[in-house]
Amino acid sequence: MKKFFSDLKEDFGIIRQGLKLVKIYLGKNYFSLNLIVKILRAVSPYITIYCTGLIITALTQKQSFEQILVYVLVATVSTLIIDIIIRTVNRKALIMLNSCWEKHAALLSRKALELDYAKAESSSVQELRGKIEENANNGNGLTWVAECVAEMIACVFSIIVAIVMISGMVFSRSQTPLSGFMAFVDSPLFAVSLIAFSVVVIAVSVRYHGLSEKKQFNIFNRAVKFNPILEYYNQKYLNENESGKDVRIFNVRGLINEEIEEKIHNPISKMRKEVFRVWSTIGQISTVSANLLGGLVYIFVGLKALAGAFGAGKVVEYYGAITKLISACTDIAGNAGYLRANNAQLKQEIEYLNLVSDMENGTRTVEDIDPENAVFEFHNVSFAYPETEPLILKNFSMKIESGERLAVVGMNGSGKSTMIKLLCRLYDPTEGRITLNGIDIREFDYAEYLKLFAIVFQDFKLLAFPVGENVACSDEYDEERVWQCLEMAGVKDRVEEFPKKLRQSIYKLYEKDGIDLSGGEEQKIAIARALYKDAPFVILDEPTAALDPIAESEIYSRFNDIAGNKTTVYISHRLSSCRFCSRIIVFDNGSVIQEGTHEELLENPNGKYSELWNAQAQYYAESEA
Which residue blocks in 542-589 are alpha helix, DSSP H? Predict the structure, then answer.
């Protein structure tokens, strides 16, 4: 019993938090508007029931035509007015509801950007967000809580109206003396007996109905995990031109169809059968309960009318009110069961939105740091990515002097990009520390610290916005400066060919006349973006991987000319692109194994740098031949 109340308290807490979030998703007025619609829909049938009873009574008592016409007009006009109000209010609510999916996706994305990079990229957080997004395809948890709570409140109003209407039935007595069974029918004891039996039947129906809703919800939740797989195959893989070529050349349609059939369609088909079985079972129970209770209500109302307690009009009124009462009780139970089942999904949503960053955020500013005299230093740094065991960097120490041209080379997975991520505080070291002019970088305000860097990552992303906004990362920018950066990056001539120049959208997501760029053109615009930021420390993390070696060497050389006194770090697989650097460090298996200039490193024929240089030189020589 204690656990029951504890679980109930937790459920109410989750629902309360969910209703607060509904205002964020759907607007502060959505719940109120939806509640008004549901209450009016729940109460309006009683007007028809009551007026119908009055009309039948008027007919049996042969009242005047004018009186009957008044009842008809009251029923018609009131129903019409309520219907107009419902449609008007519901239209506003639906407009809010239709935007909730976009708001939901935006809210999740904003939350991810609020978190530090390490936490946002962790597998546990990614898995949690994935579940939320998968569930959203099957119905968002917050929209369900808003619907169910509003429906339950409306049912309470329906029950209150029904009880008021049928209360007269319980206390109605025949005006003539009765004896025997009819005297029992006319007594309050008969009404109490019927009420007690009705409560039992309703309770049984309610319990099975609630269990049914919970089972169905859990089944649908199990089916949710197949949505991303279907989306991947149907919307991404099979619809992309590049994938389409692979599908045709290697004839993998059979493999894909078999995969979808065995791992998706068959399990989903089994789940549908399970849902239909639940529906069938609860349907039979509900039908039996409804017919049994309906028959008893008919008998009770009929016998009371036969005993002379009330007339034919009241028979219609009382029966209709009791039927609505039973329906409202069942709906409350169904929605309560659905709410409790939905809480598991809603709990994930709340857990994600309540996440906080783990990374320390200092208070120091970078205003006192002179870029011309800034020195970064790694002190015995070791690092393993969160929720993984192997160390990527091992007891790593290194200095980056102000104004130097540093090249970082090495095989894939040697730790080059990881070192850059630590330098920019996308992650914090597992062991050791990194300092700027002797100050631990964790002591700096994070946003302030990032102002020091302009980085072009290997997996950079451009926005489906105009070129100028991509370069400036703002909708307000200095056009002359943007053109200068595009020229320095070697892509100005290409942009000048665009019909809208700097206002030409990249890609076709937002504009039909958007321009699709080649990989090399995208990389040059990304480099222009780094130049526009004009940060004192510039890092190129293999951003030219899609370019041929000659084009990459030209970009690095041009970048070297325009970098001026900025501290510049180049990461590349192609050693020929980094010959101009003042210092080259060679990574291997998470450690620096060599350091020096190009000429100094080549003096050691057995070193890793010479090995890589000779292998690449031989490859290009063979290619030319």
Answer: 549-562
Regions of the chain with pLDDT less than 50: 620-625
**What is the phi/psi pair of residue 438, to 5°?**
85, -5
324 within some domain: yes
Q: Who's near 323: CB < 8 A, 6+ residues apart?
A: 294, 297
Interval 443-474: pLDDT, tens: 888 888 888 888 888 777 888 888 888 888 88
d(CA 480, CA 484): 6
Q: Which helix (H) or strand (E) holds 589?
A: none
In a domain, 469, yes or no: no
Q: How many domains does the chain have?
A: 1
C-beta of residue 471 within 8 angstroms of C-beta of residue 527: no
Is 435 domain-assigned? no
Domain that holds residue 244: 8-353
Round to whole Å and give the CA distance between 100 and 314: 46
The reply to whether 114 falls in a domain is yes
Instruction: Give per-residue pLDDT as tens, 470-485.
Output: 888 888 888 888 898 8
Look-up of token digits 């650097």:
581
Strand residue runs (E) in 482-590: 537-541, 567-571, 583-588
Domain containing 333 — which CATH number? 1.20.1560.10
Measured distance CA(456)–CA(544) in Å, rounded: 9
